[in-house]
Write a structure and sequence with these properties.
Layout lengths: L8 H17 L5 E2 L2 E2 H9 L7 H13 L6 H21 L2
Antiparallel strand pairs: 1-2
Helix pairs in contact: 2-3, 3-4
């Protein structure tokens, strides 16, 4: 029982499907002002080289969600990826 209600297998399947759908298709920490993070990442990296695009995508992802998910930890991750992007950029242009 949860909160006085009996939980059945059917209830769990329905709850899991709803949660999976929301977290996979439209997680709240990746949807701001009607813009999905994945759409912004795709637009930003569409013409970037494959050697820096993953790092740039991660910078945007962590900055995008920092106020809604992990705060300073996400900012630190964004900085880490930005430093990797900078190092990669420098290595490729030697």
């Amino acid at each position: 029982m949860v909160n006085g209600s009996t939980i059945t297998i059917d209830n769990l399947v329905d709850m899991e499907t709803t949660l999976d759908y929301d977290q996979i298709k439209n997680p709240p920490h990746y949807n701001h002002s009607g813009i999905e993070c994945i759409d912004a990442i795709e637009a930003m990296t569409e013409k970037m080289s494959g050697s820096i695009a993953p790092h740039a995508a991660n910078v945007l992802k962590y900055l995008w969600r920092c106020e809604y998910k992990n705060g300073l930890e996400d900012i630190d991750k964004a900085i880490w990826y930005l430093n990797r992007l900078k190092n990669r950029w420098t290595e490729l242009r030697k």
